[in-house]
Design a protein that fits this description.
This protein has about 425 residues and is α/β, with parallel strands linked by helices. About 35% of the residues lie in helices and about 15% in strands. A hairpin with a 2-residue loop joins strand 5 and strand 6. Bound molecules: coenzyme A (COA). The site of coenzyme A has 16 residues, from helix 5 and helix 6.
Length: about 425
């Protein structure tokens, strides 16, 4: 019997002491046949070390919390946290793997925050890693599907594109959103990804289209008559349907990658940098699998996690200057912008159509390119969102820097179809 007890949540939670982010780094995202997961995390850690303004002696690190969805099935390597701690020279310190599907490293971050706020540790390394591309797409799809419900969803044929296609269909039916709204999210995130050298796809969709035209011309094949990106995206041969209404360019890719963050107790932040970023809000919630929900057009756990994080931070959605949200599929970004309170229910698609969420719009969403263009090595994605916020809040994001010296950023990381959601809010020091 399933218990549906109403969660009794405290009106407002707080941290026992302040937590600062003082370093962040990520590997390049993409497909790297020659690299194991541990190599990717080492790459992220090297960039993190270089980002600590006053230097980091790894001896100072007291514990590792590592997000990873399934190194077991993707790489044949279980028990991956101590393996990686050893690769980095961190043993015998405590090393813990966190698995919450695609929210694994967002939750690892929260565990690191809790560990410091409790007073247990002062200096903690958190992050995430996933090496997905060693398996063929069909096997990756099966491994990812285990993040759904193995009794009631997988036997019915659900895959992750299928789950989000059901959500997209429900959203379109309820709010009358056109398919172009989904396409606009993909176009925007590829435009942002084109400015990010770490992104798996650092090409705009227009550039991808032009490359295909150039290739057809060079091979003497008839040229498709795409006038612009939208025509390209509407063409079944260029942008095939994966699970209706989601097409190839509505999906995040299969990726390898890692990201790492250095957290310290607030009172020690100045040992590492004069420009820390503070974690001022943290929220997490859970829910049943998609088949058990009455609502497909929003994610309850995301709304609850956001409420908790906003209350802790003492800020509201309108004060957030930029956000990295979990756009595993284009529809997921639209729903996220509503669940986070940036736009009212049913209005997120309009914001996407009007360009409100682009880099130069009033509410920049996914300046990194998001999961769609930057890539989605699932266990690393939550931490990689924070790498972007670290850069943006310190004014170090180069050509994709959000204007106006943003002071508040938000990260929204979803596991599965929303069985786990974690939201963090960051403030420039
Ligand atoms: N977006 C845009 N282009 C993509 C892409 C994506 N997500 N995935 C692959 N491509 C491109 C490749 O670059 C390649 O281009 P090229 O022919 O110009 O070289 C082409 O599409 C074929 O690539 P391939 O790797 O063979 O694609 P695939 O058919 O094996 O996989 C998907 C495509 C959409 C099925 C796969 O990316 C996928 O399963 N994504 C979803 C992952 C997921 O569910 N994650 C968890 C979310 S909760």
């Amino acid at each position: 019997m399933k218990s549906r007890a109403k969660a009794k949540t405290k009106a407002r939670r707080g941290l026992g002491r302040g937590v600062a982010l003082v370093g962040a780094g990520m590997s390049k995202f993409g497909s790297f046949p020659e690299k194991a997961g541990r190599d990717l995390f080492f790459e992220a850690f090297q960039e993190l070390r270089a980002s600590v303004d006053k230097g980091l002696d790894p001896e100072a690190i007291e514990a590792l919390y590592l997000g990873n969805y399934s190194s077991d099935l993707f790489e044949g390597q279980g028990h991956t946290a101590p393996i990686i701690a050893d690769w980095l020279g961190l043993t015998p310190r405590s090393a813990t793997r966190i698995e919450d599907a695609c929210a694994s490293s967002g939750v690892a971050l929260r565990q690191g925050v809790i560990a410091i706020a409790s007073g247990l540790y002062d200096v903690v390394l958190v992050g995430g890693v996933e090496k997905m591309t060693a398996l063929p797409t069909e096997r990756v799809t099966d491994v990812l599907a285990t993040g759904g419900d193995a009794l009631f969803e997988i036997p019915a044929g659900f895959t992750f594109p299928g789950f989000y296609a059901a959500m997209a269909t429900a959203y379109i039916h309820r709010y009358g959103a056109p398919l172009e709204a989904l396409m606009r999210v993909g176009i925007k995130n590829h435009e942002h990804g084109a400015l990010n050298e770490k992104a798996q796809f650092n090409l705009t969709i227009r550039q991808i289209m032009e490359n295909k035209l150039a290739k057809a011309k060079a091979q003497g094949r008839p040229l498709p008559s795409w006038a612009d990106e939208l025509e390209f995206l509407r063409d079944d041969s260029a942008n095939p349907v994966i699970a209706w209404p989601l097409r190839l360019f509505d999906c995040s890719p299969i990726s390898d990658g890692a990201a790492a963050l250095l957290l310290v107790a607030e009172e020690r932040a100045k040992e590492f940098t004069d420009e820390p970023v503070y974690i001022i809000g943290s929220g997490q919630a859970s829910d049943g699998a998609l088949h058990s929900r009455s609502e497909l057009t929003s994610i309850r756990a995301a709304k609850l996690a956001a409420q908790e994080a906003y209350a802790m931070a003492g800020v509201g959605p309108q004060e957030i200057k930029l956000a990295e949200v979990h756009d595993c599929f284009t529809i997921a970004e639209i729903i996220a912008t509503e669940d986070l309170g940036f736009f009212p229910p049913g209005e997120g698609w309009k914001a996407a159509m009007e360009g409100l969420t682009s880099l130069r719009g009033p509410k920049p969403i996914n300046p990194s390119g998001g999961l769609k263009a930057k890539g989605h090595p699932v266990g690393a994605s939550g931490a990689a969102q924070v790498v972007e916020l670290w850069k943006q809040l310190r004014g170090q994001a180069g050509p994709r820097q959000v204007r106006g010296e943003p002071d508040l950023g938000l990260a929204h990381n979803v596991g599965g179809t929303g069985q786990t959601c974690v939201v963090h809010i960051f403030r420039r020091g």
